[in-house]
Design brief:
- It is found in: Cytoplasm.
- It catalyses: 2-deoxy-alpha-D-ribose 1-phosphate = 2-deoxy-D-ribose 5-phosphate; alpha-D-ribose 1-phosphate = D-ribose 5-phosphate.
- Pfam families: Metalloenzyme.
- It is built from 13 helices and 14 strands.
- By secondary structure, the chain is α/β, with parallel strands linked by helices.
- It folds into two domains: 240 residues, Alkaline Phosphatase, subunit A; 107 residues, Alpha-Beta Plaits (2-Layer Sandwich), CATH 3.30.70.
- The strands form two sheets. It has an eight-stranded mixed β-sheet with strand order 10-9-11-1-12-13-2-14, sandwiched between helices. Strands 3, 4, 5, 6, 7 and 8 form a six-stranded mixed β-sheet that branches.
- Helix 6 links the parallel strand 3 and strand 4.
- The radius of gyration is 20 Å and the shape is globular.
- It starts with a strand and ends in a 12-residue tail after the last helix.
């Protein structure tokens, strides 16, 4: 029985979204701009057709290739992943204004009341790595949590794992989630960090996302309902609130690559593995580091080449992304872009432009699931 591996390269967009202008992102193109600025050597994904998806001159593709367009009104992680799994977002997210302060008083008061402090730090749009450098020492002195947001529908809380406490931070985020979800804020994210001072602060792998529940069954639910083994690699478990998953494996991207490799070896017949590699976005997109982004893409390509070589003849491994995050673009936020769709195990085919929901339908049909949602099979 066939297996499917759906692999999301978080934020690896390829530009040309038809509605990019309405998001202020007309002209953004994550992959192309990195390639133009730094150059990319990615022989394994280029062989499948990444160059064609990017719109550059490239040798003839040897795999399935195309691009996908999103209809959900967002450029964030839940919107992209939910729609890739067959469920476009049926509501408008709440986005906090890019002002200081960003949050209404009732949110600030609730956080402060839980923590026993006379306020919070931050209360603005910010890069997560920059804000802990700026406010981490004051946070350790005062005990006030660092709260910030972005162009996504998100409320993030950074706190020191030791002086504030990892369990206390998770409890705070869990406490705030129902209030914020009722306001249509997509995620509350705990952002623990360690270190002694601004020069040494570093975020840890113990991040946790408290996401709104998906409003209807997804690809993961369809697979589980048909008795298939389902695995989440990376933050998939957080994005889908654990729903439809038998097992979740987490860590930094290097550990996630090991998990994915292990699952190619271990996953039973008929299994669905859904993976997200986040560090393109979190470490290099938001920090506007095209050189770092390029290096991580090349690392991924080299590692995934070794994994693809182990796939069974009837396995499908499909690569895509959830949005863009052009490191040459202004600001520090995601960019509204189309995303590549590449696959090994589906023959050589130019699928042109498809929709995010078509990814779910195609994987579902490949696995022979009873449900495939609103999309169409492009395989």
């Amino acid at each position: 029985m066939s297996r499917a591996f759906l692999v999301v390269l978080d934020s690896v967009g390829c530009g040309n979204a038809p509605d990019a202008a309405s998001f202020g992102d007309a002209g953004s193109n994550t992959l192309l701009h990195i390639h133009e600025k730094v150059g990319l050597k990615m022989p394994n994904l280029m062989r499948l057709g990444l160059g064609q998806a990017m719109g550059i001159d490239a040798p003839a593709a040897q795999g399935l290739h195309g691009v996908a367009t999103e209809v959900s009104q967002g450029k964030d992680t839940p919107s992209g992943h939910w729609e890739l799994s067959g469920v476009p977002v049926p509501w408008d997210w709440l986005y906090f204004p890019d002002t200081a302060p960003s949050f209404p008083p009732e949110i600030v008061e609730e956080v402060a009341s839980f923590c026993g402090t006379d306020g919070i730090l931050g209360n603005c749009h910010a890069s997560g790595t920059v804000i802990i450098e700026q406010l981490g020492e004051e946070h350790m002195r005062s005990g006030k949590p660092i709260c910030y947001t972005s162009a996504d529908s998100v409320f993030q809380i950074a706190a020191h794992e030791e002086s504030f406490g990892q369990e206390r931070l998770q409890a705070l985020c869990q406490h705030m989630a129902p209030m914020l979800h009722a306001m249509n804020v997509g995620r509350v994210i705990s952002r623990p960090f360690v270190g002694e001072d601004a020069a040494s602060f570093k975020r840890t792998k113990n991040r946790h996302d408290y996401a709104m529940q998906v409003p209807s069954p997804t690809l993961l639910d369809w697979a589980k309902a048909d008795g298939r083994a389902t695995y989440g690699v990376g933050k998939i478990g957080d994005i889908f609130s654990g729903r439809g998953l038998d097992e979740t494996r987490k860590g930094f991207d290097d550990a996630l690559m090991v998990h994915l490799s292990d699952l190619v070896d271990e996953a039973p017949d008929g299994a669905l593995v859904f993976a997200n590699f986040v560090e393109f976005d979190s470490l290099y997109g938001h920090t506007r580091d095209p050189e770092g982004y390029a290096a991580h893409l090349e690392w991924f390509d080299a590692e995934i080449g070794r994994i693809m070589a182990k796939l069974r003849d009837d396995d499908l491994m499909l690569f895509t992304a959830d949005h863009g995050n052009d490191p040459t673009w202004g600001g520090t936020d995601h960019t509204r872009e189309q995303v590549p769709v590449l696959a090994v195990g589906a023959g050589v085919k130019d699928i042109g432009q498809v929709m995010f929901v078509d990814v779910a339908a195609s994987v579902a049909d490949y696995l022979g699931l009873s449900e495939h949602g609103p999309g169409r099979n492009f395989l």
